[in-house]
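Hi X.,

You mentioned you wanted examples for the new student's onboarding notes, showing what a folding record looks like when two proteins sit in one file. Here is a clean example. The first protein comes first, with its sequence line followed by its structure tokens.
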Amino acid sequence: MNSERRSSLVLWALVGIFVAALLLATAWLVRDGEQEARARIEERAARLVSGAAAGLNRRLLALDLLLTGVPDVVQPALTALGIVESGRASRALAALIDRQLSISDIALIDEQGTTLAAGRDTSARDGFRLPSSFAARVFAQASPQMLVSDPVVSATAGTPSLFFARRVILPGSRRAIAVLEVHASELADLMAPSLDEPNLAVTLERDDAQLLVSVPPNDRMTGRTLGSALRADQTGVVQGAARLSGVPAVVGVRPLLYRNLLVSVSLPLEPALAGWRQSRNLILAFAAALTALVLVIGALTHWQVGRLLRARRALAVAGTTLDQALGSMAEGFLLCDAEDRVLRWNERYLELFPWQKPVIGVGVPFERLAEAGANEAVPDADDAKRKAWIKMRIAMHRSGERVWAQQLGSGVFVDAMERRTPDGGIVSVYRDISAAERQLAQAKAHAEAANEAKSQFLATMSHEIRTPLNAVLGLNQLMLDSPLGPEQRRHAELIRSSGQILLAVINDILDVSRIEAGRMELEVVPFDPTRAAEEVVALMRERAQAKGLALHLVVDPDLAPLLQGDPIRLRQVLFNLLGNALKFTDQGEVRAVMRQEPLSAGMVRLVIEVADTGIGIDPSAVPTLFERFTQADSTTARRFGGSGLGLAITREIVRLMDGNIEVESAPGAGSMFRVVIPCALAAAAPVEAPSVTASAGRRTVEGLQILVAEDNPVNQILIKAVLERMGHHSDVVDNGAIALREVQSGAYDLVLMDVQMPQMDGVSATHAIRALPGPQSRLPIIAMTANALDDDRKACIAAGMDDYVSKPIDLQQLAKAIERAAAGRVRAVH
């Protein structure tokens, strides 16, 4: 109980640390994103206000130079006494307007306000009208410089205009002012020549906050005083109120070359930060989902760790019970492994065979026990008879199916029973004829229960891991099918890759479980070895290209077109070897060679060689290379990862095929794995699965009404979204009892049935549906379960289900299963 409590504390501490790190990372990303967005806005505002100031300064300088040159322009129209000939001077100014298209009008006015000359006929005739007191301010300057008037409505165009004036000296020391009129729109074009932001506002104003020109134009506010004045010494970008609308904005300010004039640029914060807020909401949603997922996984792990610890305690109790049973048995017990080396024995065995005490030990070959037994069984025999007795005893032992009796020197008759274990070992039980069998039967029952508990535990672990993994991979695939940013897509692809690696590890563990339980069986059928190899190489080619490796398949032309064997397991062997070669090769190539060697009539040896140019294997690591959960060394495991099960499973499959696997390698020189499998030549056509390409080319059926029986809420959301994307309508129920009730309505085309559900499981619900009267009993049912063993598939089919899809769900397999079920329903109707 203490260890379980400590494990729980450690687990939840790790979960808490991970969640805290996730929240800190999320907060940092949100804050960094906001700061970056604000920095971009401020940079744009600074760039815009700098451009507007530069354009206005150039135009103002040009206008000032133009005003300064007015006396020179009208010089030919001046008399010696300084009197201006109005007509001639006006024509000179009109010519100047024609050359300066941006100027609306230009005039020369004396101190009495009389228009001496003007570029426009109406101004020359009726007089040039200036805003009140503007001329007086120009004449009142201590030193002449260009002044800008308040905005007025142009008499000719009816739009806002500005007057620019400078005091000039005519011949005879006569003072006058040169005035020109410029439409506000001309200056607005300089302030924002390529306005492409609907929320941008640019203003030209005095340091007393009087608005002269604005972009976009705002006739209502032009000429009025804005809320707060901008200082002439104020330069830079600040966050405050927009000059026109007053909303929160980034405001850039730049004083102009002429006194009391400033230009400002306002970029409202709300629309400018909209993109950042969308990214922030996505980050927060993803962080919340990941946090929830971590908490769910933590809860499931807590539950599984508790079950694991309880199972370990049960296994420890069973092991202790077995040791006590062996120690108290009245029979002698001996256990040897698949290499016929001693693993375990009890004291009763040594009491029955005391001559074995100096010899016996863990790892001792049984041959040495036979030699010691020969000295007792045939003490007076010559060497040839002694060797014959040893050979006979070893053959009896290795057959693993013998029951025999022997009279010992003490006069006791020993009844011996030897049986082979699923992993190839041999267990031997020796007892005298008068001994009871009750204790041995009890110990055997305990051992079988422990083995069954382990198998059940692995099956349960597979189901419980596959269920959330189905949701993770499925929802991640839906997310990959939706619009994502480059970084978000890369994160989602990493999630998919990690989930697929986890699924591969689970499948490897299930294969190990099958092998240990002796449940892995071969399905021997005629098959085309070349086609099997080409299919595996085609699957691995993308992985090779991703690493920049060349992948070659070389098939001997003399290879038989048809052989007898298990093509699925053969593909698994080649897939594991190629995957292993690609994982440990960083540059160069991986080459697979397939050929055959003749045997007896009708038999050949199929030889598969997989060579790479990878890191190679140290000779000291070769003996443990095919052990479970091991790699060549710990540094390799850290660099390349992996569960260390691939080669172990490959060796077990090859042995099951009566074949052999060996390796040749040296560090830095690559590796070459060679598999030799005896096969019979086949005459019949191979039994192959339907082509994936051909199936994919058919049009997938759409618009079905599907009932989904699934108790996991996350998987309910996932399967409903997947079916909608396939074009089907679906209803989701929590258990088999509700599914049975819904089926009786007759409104569905097929049922997707989970197996493990509360109240009524999927198998019971299927039996009940098949017992219904009428067409509802023939409704297609597809098993959709995390139980992934072959026995689970057979159980679903035996229960009356039409097809089987394991979790995590492959969307293509699900679509094909639905298509097959729909086609079968149509045939049944017709």
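Then the second protein repeats the pattern, sequence line and then tokens:
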Amino acid sequence: MSAYESIFQAVAAGATLFTVNRRLARTLLDGYALYKKKCGVTVWKRPEITTLDTWLSCRLADVGQEGNLLNPAQSDCLWQQVVRADLLKRQLDLMQIQATTRLVAQAHRLVVDAQCLTDSSHYQVAALLSPEHHAFLRWQSAYLHRCQQQGWIDGAALTDHVITLLDQGQVSVPSMAVFIGFDEFTGSQQRLQDQFTKLGCRVEVEVPRPSLNIKIERFSGQDEGEELTVAACWARQQLERGAKRVAVVVPDLARLQNTVERIFRRELARSLFPERVPVQSFNVSLGRPLAKQGMVATALTVLSVGYSVDFETLSYLLRSPWLAGGTTEANSRAQLESWLRRQNIREITLSSLIKVCRNQGKGNHSFVQLITLLDNDNKRSRNQSLVKWGDQFNQLLNQVGWPGDRSLTSDDYQALSAWRDKLVPALAALNVVHGDTNRTTALTMLRKLATEQLFQPKAQDDRLHVTGILETAGLHFDAIWVTGLTDQILPGRVQHNPFIPTVVQRHFQMPHSSIEHEHHYAQVTIDRLSCSASQVVLSHPAGDGVVSFSPSPFIPANIHCLTSQQQDEITALEGDDQGRDITLESLSDEVGRELVVSDQPYEVAGGTSVLKDQALCPFRAYAHHQLKVRALETPQTGIDNRVRGDLIHKVCERFWREVTTHRQLCAMTDDELLQCIKQLTGEVLDQARLNDQAKELLSIERTRLTALLFEWISCFERQRQPFTVVAVEQRQQVQVGPLLLTAVPDRVDCLDDNSGYVVIDYKSGMVKNSDLIGESLLEPQLPIYALKGLDQHQQQIVAVVFAQIRSGECAFKGVAADDDVMPRVKSVAKSAAVKRGIDDWPALLDDWDRQLDQLAHDFSNAQAEVNPVAKSACQFCDLARLCRIAECEESC
């Protein structure tokens, strides 16, 4: 803290130290304590080290006016009321009220700071006022009138109000004022300094002073990722060498925060001296919205539940640990969620959900109580003050057991304190400018406050700071690296406020109004950063992979770049292990736990899908059928495709149990056929277990399904040569290799000319002949039926076909022993199997037998390699997050 010693001497002599932000104030307070201890003092008076805004607020407290000051949230709420009232009066509308009011409030602060008049006389320098400028004048006048009526003090005018109190002698002036960390002063801050001087206060401005032995270097990374990686390695290296305070400045930290934290954690974790490097607790100056904290997000979600709840919200509440029973009922709640997913529940009323939980969610007593409380709370909703809404929200959260029954960490306690001590009181404070309102509006305001309130845990390490440019103002470090110094960052771009004429902004030299101002600010910033440490690195990315970037012209030209050797030294690990080859251990998990196969075949659940999964991808088969792992289903709007496929199977099953021959089918007129299908479809749909949303679509589904099946039966089944249905959904067990499987052919027809049998499998999706006769057997169920599944008829099968039942795409697809067995189904001799040397039906059966036996033995031997037969096999697979094949492809 030697850099601040002269300042501490002034503070000890009675000076008031004004800082630009709270971070600098905290640093100086800690530094002053070390300074006094170094001087041998054990007890001292609290020093006057404070932010300028805090000092101004305290002056209002001195005269009893602190309750009249509008905080930023109150001011924003008042601006929105003024703008909405004016738009309503003029019968106008805006899409983004909040975004507009932010710009209006900014324009107001600029005008107040520049001491512009609030009427149009000061705009005479503009040739023409736009509608936006006239609107701003109206809104500003109405806003100030409301403040005057209610006796409120506008936050933008706080400095000028305190200047008036100083001039009137109502508050005292410090004997000496020292300003530190200010790159530039606003107009109102300049007026305050002038008032201090007028009243006999000595005013000093602490400016950055370069050290005698400053070492400044520059670096250019290929992109932002490389630049941040090298910066993180450099920071690790500095700490390992004994640096006490290191800073890495990231100008666009808000955009890059996630990337920065990931890179720094990864690179810091590589250190061979973990006691010197804060791996997880390094200080990131930018907090995250309080609404993003898990505890607070759960609270806002609970409060947002209305008379019904959508599945996404319900799933979140079932998995949240921040509610009563979140840990003790975790397993039963997971089972309840899984059941809701299978039932395709998209939305459900709270009263219906209570019944479902009692019937299906055994062990979910706390969750049933939570839903009951939410249902009762909705019934007593009424307009009331924001103070009462805050109390009601807290009461409801306490009743549902928020924030849960598990032990809270330090960060959890801080988030809970932020909710109770900052967020809810902030909502109550809005009652000053907002009248009674309904629950929806109160909750919207609370959510907005939670989004704008940044949360940052206090227990962070002070050795490494990752900050934006402004947060380093006035601070000193042992070493500092400044990233992102492109010509797009320094100088910044000119940004005119749309509610103030451009010529007025330039005339009063408002911030960001001219390139001259941006150049001056850029130079001041570079000078200040260059004086912040004895070792400085200024860097910029060369591009982002698409666009090339130029370095900022304000980076000094006379400093040398880091050499390749220096870069290698930075990114290398230091210590005795530097340069040592590290051999990573590897483990092959392509083979799982084999099945215990004895003389008897091993019975496997899942039917023929076991071998289909094995053919598509060995890992898929192992995960589904041995590990019993499947992804949770995602509820879909309406009736999902799986249910639709089941409905087709059930209607077809009933139809062919009634109409058992081709002759009987042909004897039916179209009207009789249509009436029969309509009746059977209605019976199946009436018995189907559908959720409430799906039931609303029953009439549409009945019409769709009836038309589809009429198209299929009348246009395709009638066109076949005569047949008799001999089996429908006939379940039987078959042995394939060492496995015992359950086979359920959808239908088996016997051709009336006694030429053989046809096995039919219904499909509501698209199928390909190549899945049956290609090099890889991807649809093994039909070959299994042909080889193993028809008992005494297995030698007389002459065709296996899929009945593809899709609107506009109906077709028979498969393969037959001879031509003309089935409409448009080719014989083996005319199929693509000929390319593989298979030209007749017995040869195809032998090939199927070989492939099925190999698939069965591979599954039995637990061959579980992630090796999909084609990319299309992954398209509808539910295991992508488990096998992570996409990550493997990216790394390749």
